[in-house]
Each structure stands twice: as C-alpha cells, then as structure tokens.
Amino acid sequence: MPKRKNTFSSWRRHLVQRAVHTGWSWVRRVGSVTAENPGRFRFGSIGEATRLSFPLGTVFGEPWIRLGSYCIIAEQVTLTAGLMPDLDLGPDPILTIGDGVVLGRGSHVIADTTVTIGSDCYFGPYVYVTSTNHSYDDPHQPIGKQWPRMEPVEIGPGCWVGTGAVILPGARIGRNVVVAAGAVVRGTVPDHAVVAGAPARVVRRWTPDEGWQPPLRTPAPVPIPDGMTPDQLRALADLDEDAVARLATLEPEG
Q1: Which strands sit side by side in the sheet containing 59-60, from one edge to the other?
Q2: Which residues contact 67 (CB under 8 A, 6 or more apart)?
Q3: Which residues face 132 on adjacent strands?
Q4: Any idea which of 133-142, 175-184, 228-237 has the lowest mean pLDDT?
Q5: Is the confidence at residue 4, as pLDDT, over 80?
Q6: Which tens digits make up the pLDDT trace of 79-114?
Q7: How do residues 121-145 score in pLDDT, each as one tens digit?
Q8: Distance (Å) of CA 194 to CA 20, 123, 126
Q9: Where does 20-147 show beta strands of DSSP type E?
Q10: What is the pTM of this model?
Q11: In whole angstroms, how far apart are CA 54 and each of 16, 35, 250?
C-alpha cells in the first residue's frame, strides 16, 4: 500500500528550508566587508562601493593591500600580502587592485612581492595569480623546503581573465588583453592581445595598422540603443528572421 503523505512534515520542512535560506542570506549580507563595515580587516585602503562577499577566502597582510572603488570580490577569494601573516612589509603597498575590478569566486591573488591589477579587469572563477614560484635548484632538498623565487606581476587595465587561468611570477600583461580559460601566463603579453594555452601564447592581436589578426570570425555585438525599454526588447526578441530582415531595410527617420 502506498504511504500516506505526511502533510505536516512537508509543511514543516518547507518552513525550515525557508528559514535557513533567509538566515543564510542575512549572514552573507552582514558578513560582507566594505569600507563602511570592514569588520576585523584593516586594509591599506578600500574604495567606495567595493564589497568582499561572505564567506571570504584567506585574507592577510591587509595593511599592504589597496582596493579601488566599485570592486566586486566574490566568495572564497584569497587575497594575501607577504609570505605569512604579521610581517612588517614596509611603507609601500604590496597588492594593488584598481577601480571596477571583478574577482570571480574561488580566485587567489598571492602577493609575496608586488602584484598590480589595473582598473576594469574581470576575472572568471578560480583564477590563480601569484608572484611566487617554488624553486628546485638543490636536487637533494625537498622542493617545498627550498626558498621560493619571487617576481612582481602586473596586469594592465581592461583585461578579461578566463576561468581557471594561472598568472605566474614575472608576468607583464598589457591593457585590454583576453586570457583564455585555463591559460598559464608567464613573461610579457602585449596590449590588445588574446592569449591561450599552457604555456600561453598570443593567438590574436589588434594593431592600429592591421586591426585584428587573424581577423575576427563573428561581427561585433551591437550595443542596445539609448532609451530602449524592456518592453521594446521583448518585442524584438519575438520577431522572426523575415521580420528582422524587413526592419533592416527601413531607412531611419529624419
């Protein structure tokens, strides 16, 4: 015989589930770190409207970390300055992040020496940026016990760094660079380039004389015109291909 449904238990489970979700939303909201509500963190600076989402990853050396304005630091992002907590790193910042930077969930920025991320950079989830690499000069010592090598890292403004990319010590990435998902970047990357692979290499580049080489295979997206309403966008989405083709032949008014 089929079991009778326990309506009371279902109702109670729904109520508990709703309470848990509501409570977790409250915890995430209250646990976020901002300039107005920094909690226990004392960053060198943290700009207007910047938010570090809760739960945070590992964060230490924050007096030597400077965060610009309007940044979004997603959940479980690690930000560290120095090899370990409670070091005196001198008067200058070690990790500098510009305005409007987005660091995706689970990303790590490890700044044992200087790391600079320019404004308006967007990082996908689980990106790893480090200024330190293990050394293995002595074949008789465990690699983890050998003193690491450290080189500054610089990422120019306007870059897009794909999911799971790794930026290694000494990397110098120009402005408006696309780093493909899973790429491993070392050395210098010129402005307006696309890099992919491990190790990463330039697969496309823009120059004023030649444009994009190799040429782009798809047309550039058309921005939404100023003043377009949500209702108008929904109406356009419902048009079939013939209707869109007829609209494209119309002359603009005026």
Answers
A1: 59-60, 78-81, 108-111, 128-130, 166-167, 184-185
A2: 43, 45, 46, 47, 50, 73, 97
A3: 150
A4: 228-237
A5: no
A6: 999 988 888 888 899 999 999 999 999 999 999 999
A7: 999 999 999 999 999 999 999 998 9
A8: 44, 15, 19
A9: 45-46, 51-52, 59-60, 65-67, 72-73, 78-81, 95-97, 102-103, 108-111, 115-117, 122-123, 128-130, 132-133
A10: 0.84
A11: 22, 15, 51
Query: What are 252's two structure tokens?
Result: 């603009």
Rounded Cα distance, 108 and 128, in Å: 5
CB 80, CB 57: distance < 8 Å: no
116 touches 155 (CB < 8 A)? yes
Which pLDDT value is given to residue 65? 97
Closest CA to 194 of 176, 208, 220: 176
Dist CA 115 CA 109 (whole Å) = 8
Burial 217-243 (b: 16+ CB within 10 A, else e): eeeeeeeeeeeeeeeeeeeeeeeeeee
Angle at 155 between CA 150 and CA 157, to 5 degrees: 160
| CA gap 157, 209 in Å, rounded | 22
Return d(Cα 176, Cα 166) in angstroms, integer. 17
